[in-house]
Structures are given as structure tokens and as C-alpha cells.
């Protein structure tokens, strides 16, 4: 019997979009359908990737150059793909990832102003054409998200940015969704959690069904 490649689902969103609870919800939906899920995150997901995450999110290197930041994101991603994501997909497992390359376009491209063609070059190099099968964008107005996130602990190196930075991040995510309509689904994350989860179910259940059919 040949093993069918697993599917790669990513979840994106700005600060305070409720990624954690919604990722747990998606994971449950997949597992209830009998799918073996590898749950991971970026930057991170491997031992080396998590060390790079500490460098990126911590306050030790506050003045890090934007190119360094971008290259570290892709260094962590190369490790993640080689050691965790590709092996899991090749074993037929599904991978659910908290952020992926769309975040590099949104934060380093939109937020920091790096030319998207340079990000594309790194994407082509590191991913060799591999892209997620489905991306859920948890979208909400910047201020609503910041008000929610503000209630949490010590801000990381990204969370200390100004509103204008997050407005550019949001605009870039929405642009990416518009440019890649077959991969992206926009979820309105400004509404109460049960209504966010209703929207997620409407996207994820038919996706699972369609993939099972395709694998028959
Ligand atoms: P979070 O996923 O816990 O929200 O934190 C990760 C932070 O890293 C978040 O502020 C977004 C940022 N990030 C980038 O700037 N570029 C990337 O490519 C990724 C994956 C994350």
C-alpha cells in the first residue's frame, strides 16, 4: 500500500486573534476525523528552531537588522521543513502549523518594509515550491487585537511595535489572501469565540471530506 502524503494546514493572524484556542479547536476537529496530526509552530518547531525563536522574540537583540530577522525566520523554517514538516507529511501525517511563510511576507515584508521579491527568493530556495494546502487567516481590526493581547504577559520583540506596524501586517495578510484565494480562507476573528469556531468548522470539515475523497 502506498502512503498518501499528509496535508499541511497553517493558521495566521495578527496579535490577539485567538490563534492558540482556535488552533486547539482545529486540532480537535482533525483528530475527531481520525487524522494523525503533528502540531507545531513558527518560528520554532525543532530544537534549533526554538533557539532561533528565542533570539527573534527575546529582547537581547532589540536592534536586529531586518534582513537578519528575515534570514533567521527562514533558517528556522529550513530546519523545520527538513526535520519535522516534510518527514511527517511523507509519512501521511497532517501538519498543523501556527504561522508559516505568510508571516514573513506580513511581518518582514509589510511590517519591516523588506522587498517581497527578496522574500520570494528565500521562499523558493527553502521551500522548493512547497506551500500549505490550506491557510486560515484569523483577521480582526488591529486595535481590537491589541486590546485583547494587552491583557497578557510581558510583550515580546514584535509585540512592542506601534499600531502602524500592525496595520501594515494586517493589510499584507489580506492582500496575500486576495492573491491566493484557493489556499486562503479569511475568518472573522473579531466576533465571540463560538462564532469564530463556527466559521472554522465551515471551512475545515469540507476540506477534510474533500481530501479523504482525493485519497480514495
Ligand atoms: P506568535 O506566533 O507566538 O504570535 O509569535 C511569533 C512572532 O513572530 C509573531 O509576532 C510574528 C512573528 N513572525 C514573523 O515576524 N515572521 C515569521 O515568518 C514568523 C513565522 C513569525
TrEMBL record:
One cellular component (GO) term of this entry: cytosol
Key word Transferase present: yes
Residues annotated as binding ATP: 13-20
Keywords of this entry: ATP-binding, Kinase, Nucleotide biosynthesis, Nucleotide-binding, Transferase
E.C. no: 2.7.4.9
InterPro entries recorded: P-loop_NTPase, RidA_CS, Thymidylate_kin-like_dom, Thymidylate_kinase
Record-level Gene Ontology MF annotations: ATP binding; dTMP kinase activity
Domain Thymidylate kinase-like: 11-200
Catalytic activity line of the entry: dTMP + ATP = dTDP + ADP
GO biological process: dTDP biosynthetic process; dTTP biosynthetic process; dUDP biosynthetic process
Gene3D superfamilies: P-loop containing nucleotide triphosphate hydrolases (3.40.50.300)
Pfam families documented for this protein: Thymidylate_kin
NCBIfam families assigned: DTMP_kinase (TIGR00041)
Functional summary from the UniProt entry: Phosphorylation of dTMP to form dTDP in both de novo and salvage pathways of dTTP synthesis.
HAMAP family the record matches: Thymidylate_kinase
Family: Belongs to the thymidylate kinase family.
Protein name as annotated: Thymidylate kinase
Amino acid at each position: 500500500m502506498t502512503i498518501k502524503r499528509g496535508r499541511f494546514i497553517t493558521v495566521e493572524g495578527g496579535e490577539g486573534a485567538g490563534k492558540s484556542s482556535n488552533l486547539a479547536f482545529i486540532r480537535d476537529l482533525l483528530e475527531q476525523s481520525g487524522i494523525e496530526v503533528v502540531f507545531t509552530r513558527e518560528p520554532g518547531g525543532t530544537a534549533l528552531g526554538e533557539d532561533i525563536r528565542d533570539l527573534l522574540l527575546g529582547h537581547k537583540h532589540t536592534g536586529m537588522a531586518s534582513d537578519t530577522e528575515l534570514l533567521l525566520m527562514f533558517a528556522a523554517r529550513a530546519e523545520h521543513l527538513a526535520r519535522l514538516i516534510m518527514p511527517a507529511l511523507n509519512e501521511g501525517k497532517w501538519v498543523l502549523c501556527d504561522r508559516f511563510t505568510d508571516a514573513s511576507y506580513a511581518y518582514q515584508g509589510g511590517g519591516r518594509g523588506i522587498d517581497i521579491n527578496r522574500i520570494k527568493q528565500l521562499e523558493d530556495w527553502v521551500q522548493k515550491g512547497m506551500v500549505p494546502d490550506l491557510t486560515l487567516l484569523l483577521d480582526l481590526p488591529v486595535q481590537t487585537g491589541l486590546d485583547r493581547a494587552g491583557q497578557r504577559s510581558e510583550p515580546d520583540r514584535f509585540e512592542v511595535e506601534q499600531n502602524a506596524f500592525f496595520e501594515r501586517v494586517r493589510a499584507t495578510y489580506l492582500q496575500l489572501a486576495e492573491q491566493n484565494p484557493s489556499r486562503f480562507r479569511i475568518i472573522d476573528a473579531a466576533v465571540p469565540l463560538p462564532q469564530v469556531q463556527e466559521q472554522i468548522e465551515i471551512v475545515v470539515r469540507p476540506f477534510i471530506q474533500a481530501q479523504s475523497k482525493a485519497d480514495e
